[in-house]
């Protein structure tokens, strides 16, 4: 009989975007092995990173901490100091090249996340493609979808389904692929997020998932309601703000406030870059006819 998974709640809360619940559920866990304790701490610190509490993570993880926690600290440094990205990536590359620690799954996960932020998807895959954890497989799905290779993403999903079809990350990966494929698959994606909303606490991740499905199906009023609920949970969440901009445009409502908030919270967001490129092109066009 398999031993109980002491970190199930911590891990599952993290995967659905319930970051404060991840932190809260990590306390008073008995009889954790050293590896389990490190995994727990890494999830807690990544939850603080998701809440933009970068300095807390940087200050609490010192040079004596285990490699996985050092990797999480590197992620906090990367996200907190855009001006020093090159230095952070240089350190990451050095660690990944070290045969003693380079294959650590949490380090490889952090590498995948950072290189995804850099939009260097081939480099990300160098470190994530071998899998080893459900999170690495799910990260592969995200990377392949960013590369517009839903065929490879579906292969990763099949691997995840063989390991654990009911795993939260397997269900999420299935929903992401369904959204990417579109058509009749949108309804299937919506049902996955709906199932999550009935089983777990409502998070920005779940609300945004349902909202994006609703927009694909033309239900913009429902999407707006879901996104407003998500904003009540986190007024600065970039994905909620970006989806709100798109939703408002379809409803014929003002979107400038949400776009301004998005520029302030995440200036390098893809939507912000696209809007800036469009505005620059428009200005150039105006100048040519002025």
UniProtKB/TrEMBL annotation:
Q: Where in the cell is it found?
A: Cytoplasmic vesicle, COPI-coated vesicle membrane; Golgi apparatus membrane
MF annotations from Gene Ontology:
structural molecule activity
- What is the topology of this protein in the membrane according to its UniProt annotation? Peripheral membrane protein
Keyword list, A-Z: Cytoplasm, Cytoplasmic vesicle, ER-Golgi transport, Golgi apparatus, Membrane, Protein transport, Transport
Q: Which domain of life is it from?
A: Eukaryota
Q: Which InterPro entries match?
A: Coatomer_esu, TPR-like_helical_dom_sf
Q: Name one GO cellular component term.
A: Golgi membrane
Q: A Pfam family this protein belongs to?
A: Coatomer_E
What does the record list as GO biological process?
endoplasmic reticulum to Golgi vesicle-mediated transport; intra-Golgi vesicle-mediated transport; protein transport; retrograde vesicle-mediated transport, Golgi to endoplasmic reticulum
Family indicated by similarity: Belongs to the COPE family.
Q: How does it assemble?
A: Oligomeric complex that consists of at least the alpha, beta, beta', gamma, delta, epsilon and zeta subunits.
Q: Could you tell me what this protein does?
A: The coatomer is a cytosolic protein complex that binds to dilysine motifs and reversibly associates with Golgi non-clathrin-coated vesicles, which further mediate biosynthetic protein transport from the ER, via the Golgi up to the trans Golgi network. The coatomer complex is required for budding from Golgi membranes, and is essential for the retrograde Golgi-to-ER transport of dilysine-tagged proteins.
Full protein name: Coatomer subunit epsilon
Organism expressing this protein natively? Heracleum sosnowskyi
């Amino acid at each position: 009989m398999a031993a109980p998974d002491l970190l199930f709640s911590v891990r599952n809360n993290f995967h659905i975007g319930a970051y404060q619940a991840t932190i809260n559920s990590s306390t008073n866990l008995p009889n954790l092995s050293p590896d389990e304790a490190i995994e727990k701490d890494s999830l807690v610190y990544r939850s603080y990173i998701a809440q933009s509490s970068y300095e807390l993570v940087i200050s609490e993880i010192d040079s004596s901490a285990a490699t996985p926690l050092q990797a999480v600290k590197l992620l906090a440094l990367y996200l907190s100091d855009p001006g020093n990205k090159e230095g952070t990536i240089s350190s990451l590359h050095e660690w990944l090249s070290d045969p003693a620690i380079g294959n650590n799954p949490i380090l490889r996960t952090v590498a995948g996340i950072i290189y995804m932020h850099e939009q260097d998807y081939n480099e990300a895959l160098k470190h994530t493609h071998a899998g080893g954890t459900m999170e690495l497989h799910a990260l592969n799905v995200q990377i392949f979808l960013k590369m517009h290779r839903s065929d490879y993403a579906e292969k990763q999903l099949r691997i995840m389904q063989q390991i654990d079809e009911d795993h939260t990350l397997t269900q999420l990966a299935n929903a992401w692929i369904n959204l990417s494929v579109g058509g009749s698959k949108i309804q299937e994606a919506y049902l996955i997020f709906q199932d999550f909303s009935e089983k777990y606490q409502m998070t920005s991740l779940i609300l945004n998932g349902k909202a994006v499905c609703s927009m694909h199906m033309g239900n913009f009023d429902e999407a707006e309601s879901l996104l407003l609920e998500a904003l009540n949970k986190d007024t600065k969440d970039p994905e909620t703000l970006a989806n709100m901009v798109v939703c408002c445009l379809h409803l014929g409502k003002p979107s400038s406030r949400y776009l301004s908030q998005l520029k302030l919270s995440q200036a390098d967001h893809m939507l912000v870059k696209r809007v800036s490129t469009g505005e620059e092109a428009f200005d150039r066009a105006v100048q040519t006819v002025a």
